[in-house]
Design a protein that fits this description.
This protein has 255 residues and is of the alpha+beta class. The protein has 2 domains: 33 residues; 193 residues, Oxidoreductase, molybdopterin-binding domain (Sulfite Oxidase, Chain A, domain 2). It is built from 5 helices and 10 strands. Strands 2-1-10-5-6 form a 5-stranded mixed sheet. Strands 3, 4, 7, 8 and 9 form a 5-stranded antiparallel sheet that branches. A hairpin with a 5-residue loop joins strand 3 and strand 4. 28% of the residues are buried.
């Protein structure tokens, strides 16, 4: 009958030492749990700033923006699809700034400089080369759809109206005619070749609820940055006001 022979190199940990280590590990877990809860409570109860978000969270969002901006490349494009891949029934991602129906008096106001504003009609825009893009439109609500849009490439628009000097500024701001919806986008993303001033969806004029007569399509951003029913466009080195950033969302909203 064989007997168990202990390994002389094997260390036997006394029961007291095991108990001590377990108590230390459990105590550390409790301390971390309590510390995390206190930190969450502090952030949650931190007074909100003017842009409806806690200052600490806003600092985090700004840090993310700086990080994403460092890795951005104008040569990176959103994945393209075929027109057959595009959905026929396009979902509407919000209706802020869409009250009422626009008539033929609509004009796109482009503020080149203080006191210097272009007034453009849809016919003016349609004289420029048309570009189409089919991509996966993504909403911050968690859904996406492959959609097909047609219009004027934003970079072509700038060239046609001698707006090249404005590309030296950091941002482009856009506002709906009723001034209730407004966005700001960084200039590098606006100059990305898939960015459009779109006047068609699925080969047809934009429906009223999709931004008729003109909307922004910027595939490297979430849907909150794709302003519908553009009324005013301007350029700035300071961040333009942004509707959803004021509600606590990320200003950059990049993909």
């Amino acid at each position: 009958m064989s007997r168990y022979l202990p390994n002389p190199e094997e260390k036997i940990v006394p029961d007291g030492a095991v108990r001590k280590r377990s108590i230390i590990a459990f105590s550390m877990f409790i301390l971390l749990l309590v510390g995390g809860a206190l930190l969450f409570a502090r952030l949650y109860n931190e007074p909100q700033s003017a842009n409806n978000v806690q200052p600490t969270l806003r600092k985090g969002l700004k840090a993310n923006e700086r990080l994403f901006s460092l890795f951005y490349s104008k040569h990176r494009e959103a994945k393209s699809f075929t027109k057959d891949d595009a959905v026929k029934k396009v979902r509407v991602n919000g209706d802020v700034g869409m009250d009422g129906t626009l008539d033929t008096t609509w004009r796109l106001k482009v503020a080149r400089n203080p006191g210097d504003t272009l007034m453009l009609t849809m016919d003016d825009l349609k004289k420029l080369p048309k570009t189409e893009v089919v991509f996966d439109f993504k909403c911050v609500e968690g859904w996406s759809q492959v959609t097909w849009w047609g219009g004027v490439r934003f970079s072509d628009f700038l060239k046609a109206y001698n707006l090249a000097p404005q590309t030296g500024l950091k941002y482009v701001g856009m506002i709906t005619p009723d001034e209730t919806y407004y966005v700001g986008n960084d200039m590098p993303s606006m100059l990305q070749p898939q960015t459009l001033l779109a006047y068609e969806m699925n080969g047809q004029p934009l429906p009223q609820n999709q931004g008729y007569p003109l909307r922004l399509i910027i595939p490297v951003k979430y849907g909150i940055k794709h302003l519908k029913r553009i009324g005013v466009m301007y350029f700035s080195n300071d961040k333009p006001k942004d509707y959803w950033a004021e509600q606590g969302y990320d200003y950059y909203a990049g993909l």
